[in-house]
Amino acid sequence: MDKILILGLSKSGIAAAKLGVNLGYNVYLTEGKSEVNELQVKELENLGIKVEYGRHSDEFIKNSSFVVTSPGIPPKSELFQRIQKENIPIISEVEFAYLNSDTPFVAITGTNGKTTTTSLVSHLLSQCFDAPTCGNIGLPPSSIVEDENDFLVCEISSFQAQMTEKFKPFISCWTNFTPDHIDWHEGLENYFNAKAKMFLGKQSPEYAILNAKDEKLLEFSKKCKKSKVFLFDTEDYPNASYIKENAIWYKEDGVEEKIIDIKDSPLVGHHNYQNIMCGIICAKLCGMENEDIKSGIISFRAPEHRLEKVRELNGITFYNDSKATNPEASIVAIDSFDGVDVSLILGGRDKNTDLTEMCKSINQHIKTVLLIGEATQRFEENLKKNGFDNIIKEETLESAIDKAISLKPDVVLLSPACASFDMFNSYEHRGEVFKEYVLSK
After folding, report:
1. What does DSSP assign to residue 419?
2. Whether 224 contacts 185, CB under 8 Å
3. pLDDT greater than 70 at residue 179
């Protein structure tokens, strides 16, 4: 019976350990932290898994056939170096699940938007198939690969992608690429190359879907020689999805089909229309009919606190974008509205990031800004410096909502561009307070 080592008493580590036992491996699990959930440890030990914590002993590492790692452990760590000195292969939990499954994977990666896209693709496919989310959201794939599913829709982080060598999805999607996780990957190109692995060589998927409006990804698409490539947000390609005549279309081998009118989409903003384009391509490649895809889009709801439509009241539509904890995230929400009267609620605990680009977007798209929280003074100074004067200061989120309603705008948008900790426990708490108060009206 081969010995395998699992790194970390995380959700993915526990799932991989249980799968390993089911597959007949002699499973060892090592956790560096000293404080652990004793009940979890006992449950694993009762399954025959050897568990250690507070250290990574040579006894656990040596003679392992391979190691399954969790995404939180960086490759430059001392633990990785010890394992590599023993010449033991290290794979991600996602790859371990994939290698022990016959279910096709739809893999979705990207710097931003991948959670919404993953949720949307799973929702669309679930109109006709069993297609749960897994990976970076939902369950670890190791916990569901033994179930009877038609597809596994798997959000893949750069950490997970880097630790794969044989992971070959049926479909791989890349939503966009912007600088992130530079320290973890020790450089921007390393970060890009980690994600690129899922599209090249022996890991090349049957279908590769990439964002045509991202210049780096458009150029990279030319390297995906072993896959049938689809681009979204462009008409200038035989295999694509795009907006034309206020509708979203799908084209394969030059033959185009209209899928849904923009006005019927529950999601707003061009970034969300891109998510829908990507989702449409996935659904078509998995064999769905256009009417099923359209009904799936109409019934989809954005993940909570991400430009989430809360309600309409007396001609005002309320959106909760509490997850926008920095200016870059708020810009995406702000730019989603054009030609309508928007009252924007901003503020919280200031991260002292540059506000110039956000102020430009506010000037273009927002009629009124309501400021709350510790960031009020700096935000006010920056808005006025950039030529925006229609500012109202409020003491609480509730009073800001009341004031916004009294202005009778088309939209009230909570997109704070700040952390929540001056007034709330978390961005989730802030979003829940916003929703509960709006729904109480």
Report:
1. B
2. no
3. no
Amino acid at 248: I
CB count, 10 Å around CB of 2? 13
Q: What percent of the chain has pLDDT over 90?
A: 83
What's residue 22's pLDDT? 97
Query: How far is the C-alpha of 142 from the C-alpha of 93, rounded, in Å?
Result: 7
The residue count for the chain = 441
Q: Kindly give the pairing relationship between strand 255-261 and strand 247-252.
A: antiparallel
* 3-state percent breakdown (helix, strand, coil) of the chain, nearest 5: 40, 20, 40
Torsion angle (degrees, nearest 10) of CA 329, 332, 336, 340: 60
Q: Give the full edge-to-edge strand order of the sheet including 391-393.
A: 308-313, 316-320, 411-414, 342-346, 368-371, 391-393
Task: Provide the whole-model pTM.
Answer: 0.83
pLDDT value at position 1?
81
pLDDT digits (tens, 9 = 90+) for 182-202: 565 667 788 888 889 999 999
Residue 175 has pLDDT above 60, yes or no: yes
Q: Which two tokens stand for residue 338?
A: 């054009």
Residues 6+ apart with CB under 8 A from 155: 108, 109, 114, 115, 118, 133, 134, 135, 136, 137, 138
